[in-house]
Amino acid sequence: MTTQVTKLTISLPKSLVSLADEVASEENISRSRVVSNCLRELAQKRKMQLMEEGYKVMAKENSDFAKLAFGLQSEVALRQA
């Protein structure tokens, strides 16, 4: 799989550049790869947070629907009796 690459010029505090250089050296990767990996992890974290929020909304909707369905089922059962 070929990934398109775009050059980007950014300004960072020296402490973050030092950290990026340290991580790059430890992991034997480029500074660009360090930044790319960090952004990829952030994107994954955001995706997981959105999914979690969505599942919570769905759980609430499913609970509300179950309560409604149970109430209707009880009403039908009373009319049939």
Task: Give a nutshell description of this structure.
The chain has 81 residues and is mainly α. The chain is built from two helices and no strands.
Task: Please give a handful of descriptors for the protein shown.
mainly alpha, single chain, 79% helix, 2 helices, rod-shaped
Task: Give your account of this protein's structure.
The chain has 81 residues and is mainly alpha-helical. The mean pLDDT is 90. The chain starts with 13 loop residues before the first helix and ends with a helix. It is rod-shaped. It is built from two helices and no strands. The protein has one domain.
Radius of gyration: 26 Å
First-residue to last-residue Cα separation: 65 Å
Helix content: over 70%
List unreliable stretches of 5+ residues. none
Strand content: under 5%
Provide mean pLDDT, rounded: 90
The best one-word shape is: rod-shaped
For the largest beta-sheet, the strand count, sense and barrel status come to:
none
> How many E strands?
0
Number of helical stretches of at least 4 residues: 2
Based on secondary structure, the structural category is mainly alpha
Order of helices and strands: HH
How many distinct domains?
A: 1
List the helices and strands and how they pair.
Blueprint: H1 14-27, H2 31-80
Helix pairs in contact: 1-2
